[in-house]
Write a structure and sequence with these properties.
heterodimer, A: alpha+beta, six-stranded antiparallel β-sheet, B: 2 domains, 2 helices, 20 strands
Chain lengths: 249, 263
């Protein structure tokens, strides 16, 4: 009898974690480059001794966290018109120089700092093939091509400034999230193939509200069902105590 | 229950988003106004299980970690400094900048401010001033008895005085540009101040490389696109609504626990 309460408890914990993941997806529905996540669960079997009326080993099945899987599907590309907003189409990440080392992001909102470096909102420099990309005041009409090449017009002559360091990884699910739209990893960088850059646009998050809300309802109902189960178990226990505890006259 | 606080960060973020959009819409007809956009970032993650953690001695590893997010935060509200449309006014002291550059204005305390709003007028002393009476730098005084004033694309101000057929040059408008104009500090009144993020102002003559040209008799309208703003407003409102649904759902789950304990 206690076991059924514990099984319900494991389910309730799982449901509240699934709810946290959905809440985080919805909170980040407007975060550029955010990738939605799904909580995954697995069965945990425990062998218990059979009662006198049963034969063979019996197992109890609990639920436990297996992982939180990131859905790396492409987010919608939204037009902003800002010169230093870049959207990545396809697999790839921007490389940023941070005090903690190189970090990666899909959030393509950048601006210039006072030194003319292209930096993100935290002030971390965007890396090109030759280190941080610097735009001087003489670089006019800065253009970024689909392959990430940055060109500008200096004194009326078109010049190539640098090319963005677009990288990809063997297993991008294993990238660690660091917050502030950054990822870190110990994996080796590969040059991103098949990723194109669109200037003046941002990749929106790939959170689909309909999916999240229906998942939320599902989680809530599962939670309710388990709660009802625990309640009826409690009632059962209460009745048993009352009945069995009544002294025969 | 973490979902409650996560949803509240989402609601706060969307509220700021709506406020930014409201400010853009309110300034749709403000001369030289540049639209702003709110940018968000995800908050720190709690690592319950690191992605790529080993699950056996044989070198198998978990393909996905368990990293619990804590919601969203505002990263920045940035200005999109694209060119606004030029609107004809016919007023000789209305000047629009086509291309990069800001007019330098002397504030009453003597420090410099910068603006894209070129709706200037004359002071009682004949100086070119903003609508708030601040001097446009470098100071230009229009002589008395002036019949007509022309300002050319390079910012040269010529005045034709009564009784004289040839116009005389009375001053030269200058423009200032910044390494990062999005880093300027907006102080209201269409004015911006230099900051460490914007870098130092570099003065130059309009029309020289890297500087815009001057258009007399025109004003630069705001670059707010109403269709974009309304769509952004709808998206923000829906996102706010969905986050509030999470609050309701989390609340119901907690309610069930308390009911269960009371049974």
């Amino acid at each position: 009898m206690d076991n059924s309460l514990l099984v319900s408890l494991s389910q309730q914990l799982a449901a509240s974690r699934a709810m946290d993941v959905i809440a985080n997806n919805l909170a980040n529905a407007s975060t550029p480059g955010y990738k939605r996540e799904d909580a995954r669960f697995e069965q945990y079997l425990e062998r218990v001794a059979p009662s006198s009326l049963e034969r063979g080993p019996q197992t109890l099945s609990f639920v436990e966290d297996a992982g939180i899987a990131r859905d790396t599907a492409q987010g919608a590309v939204t037009h902003t018109g800002a010169t230093y907003d870049f959207a990545i189409n396809g697999n790839g990440y921007f490389a940023l120089q941070t005090p903690q080392g190189v970090r990666y992001t899909r959030d393509g909102h950048f601006s210039l700092n006072a030194d003319g470096q292209i930096v993100n909102s935290s002030g971390y420099a965007l890396l090109g093939q030759n280190g941080p990309v610097t735009i001087t005041p003489d670089d006019l009409d800065v253009q970024v091509g689909p392959d990430g090449s940055i060109s500008s017009t200096v004194n009326g002559i078109g010049t190539q400034v640098d090319q963005l360091r677009l990288v990809d990884f063997a297993d991008d699910h294993a990238l660690m999230k660091e917050g502030s739209n950054l990822y870190s990893t110990t994996q080796a960088e590969n040059a991103a193939t098949g990723a194109t850059i669109q200037q003046g646009a941002l990749e929106a998050s790939n959170v689909q509200p309909v999916v999240e809300i229906s998942n939320m309802i599902q989680v809530m109902r599962a939670y309710q069902a388990t709660t009802a189960l625990s309640q009826s178990q409690q009632q059962l226990a209460g009745q048993a105590i009352q009945r069995l505890g009544t002294m025969p006259n | 229950m973490r979902a409650l606080s996560i949803a509240s960060t989402g609601m706060q973020a969307q509220q700021t988003n709506v406020e930014t959009i409201a400010n853009n819409l309110a300034n749709m007809n403000t001369t030289g106004f540049k639209e702003q956009r709110a940018e968000f970032q995800d908050l720190l993650y709690e690592n319950v299980q690191t992605p790529g953690a080993q699950t056996s001695d044989q070198g198998t590893y978990a393909p996905n970690g368990i990293q619990l997010g804590a919601g969203v935060k505002m990263a920045a509200i940035y200005r999109i400094t694209t060119q606004g449309d030029l609107q004809s006014t016919g007023n000789p002291y209305d000047v629009a900048v086509q291309g990069p550059g800001y007019f330098r204005i002397q504030q009453p305390d003597g420090t410099d401010a910068y603006t894209r709003a070129g709706n200037f007028s004359l002071s009682p002393q004949g100086q070119i001033v903003t609508q708030d009476g601040m001097l446009v730098q470098p100071g230009i005084t229009i002589p008395q008895n002036t019949i007509s004033v022309t300002i050319n694309a390079q910012g040269q101000v010529n005045a034709t005085v009564a009784g004289n057929t040839t116009p005389q040059t009375v001053g030269q408008l200058e423009l200032d540009r910044f390494p990062n104009e999005a880093g300027l500090n907006a102080v209201g009144g269409n004015l911006f101040l230099e900051t460490p993020a914007s870098g130092n102002a570099q003065a130059g003559v309009p029309g020289s490389p890297g500087y815009g040209t001057i258009q007399q008799g025109f004003l630069e309208t705001s670059n707010v696109n109403s269709v974009d703003e309304i769509t952004a407003l709808i998206t923000a409102q829906r996102a706010y609504e969905m986050n509030s649904k999470v609050v309701t759902a989390a609340d119901q789950m907690m309610q069930q626990i308390t009911q269960m304990a009371g049974a």
